[in-house]
Amino acid sequence: MRSFTYELLPGRVVFGSGTIVRLPVELDVLEASRVVLISDNMAKTDADQIESDLGGRVVGRIGEIEPHVPIEKVEAARRLTDDRQADAVVTIGGGSTTGVGKAIVLEKELSFLAIPTTYAGSEMTPIYGITVGDVKRTGRDPRVKPKTVIYDVDLTLDLPTEVTSGSTMNALAHCVEALYARERSPIVSIMALEGIRALKRGSMVVAGDPGNVDGRSDLLYGAFLAGASLGAVGMAIHHRICHVLGGTFGLAHGDANAVILPHVVAYNREAEPEVMAALADALGVAEPAQGIRELAETLGAPTSLAELGIKEPDLDRATEMIVDGVGYNPRPVEREWIRHLLEDAFAGRPPSAQ
Ligand SMILES: [Fe+2]
Questions:
Q1: Å from CA of 58 to ligand 1 middle
Q2: Of the candidates 35, 153, 286, 303, which lies 20 to 30 Å from 144 by C-alpha distance?
Q3: At 262, which CATH number?
Q4: Ligand 1 mean position, distance from CA 304 (Å)
Q5: Domain count, the chain
Q6: pLDDT tens across 15-66, in order?
Q7: Pairing of strands 135-140, 35-39
Q8: Which residues lie at CB < 5 A from ion ligand 1?
Q9: What are the pLDDT digits (tens) for 156-174?
Q10: pLDDT (tens digit per residue) in 172-191
Q11: Are residues 18 and 57 in the same domain?
Q12: Distance from Cα 337 to the centre of ligand 1, integer Å
């Protein structure tokens, strides 16, 4: 007998190759006629194309995105939507770009359509973050989830290798932690395991052939499922560690994920034998922690904190911050273990259960 609670989140998803041409029709569905278009540097060319295709429907543009969604940028963007009497926000870019769109619609009643170009998965979640000073406040609010998401694999074909590797490992971590989350459910596990299979398959192809459409399609599909999983449950100790390493020590979220995930999987293995067996099966490996480490290596992702600029004396402070803010984890979190994990991760040692 199992029992669970699963809340379906509303939203429309268009997935495929060349789907960007559907944008005008999808804006019609949203009854959007005055669009503020937000893009990051990487997506500039695609955003230019969208602006010329939409003609007078684009009434404002933002083309510079800073990481972690600073409140000053959010307020300027909100003012722009007011000044131009916009009725919709369209974002095209990575997680920080989607994040600006979320921060706008948190306080403004506008339609929101997102076109993600990385594997961050933010477009499928009601989670937002805004940085005030040096503190990033995060929250959950159903209003911030985009009403429509267009996934176009063609926009990801030339994603740089270092973005691909970190972003893929971030998506993989969303799937893995969804499997043992406190709010887990059979539906979320189906999505997460399918996401893991797709991310593994895509990684093996894209590592040797970065522009391969089938490989890129698998990665984007896996990222969509990872985002949908992340949107339905809370995360565990892995994401706590990555947020401290990112928020306080400036590590890119994807890089932190690549280094830390194998160690966390090794630690949680004994507490969740059935989950770990399913994870190993989805990855097609005998030992999931080692399998994830090898996947990171295949993608060319970092495997040590030292190479990311963390200094050994930082490990004490990081340990304290992680333990102080710790939430749910299937195996209770012990200070000594966190310290030990960070030492292993710092040195790039293989994952080992304590
Ligand atoms: Fe993440």
A1: 31
A2: 153
A3: 1.20.1090.10
A4: 18
A5: 2
A6: 999 999 999 999 999 999 999 999 999 999 999 999 999 999 999 999 999 9
A7: unpaired
A8: 170
A9: 999 999 999 999 999 999 9
A10: 999 999 999 999 999 999 99
A11: yes
A12: 22
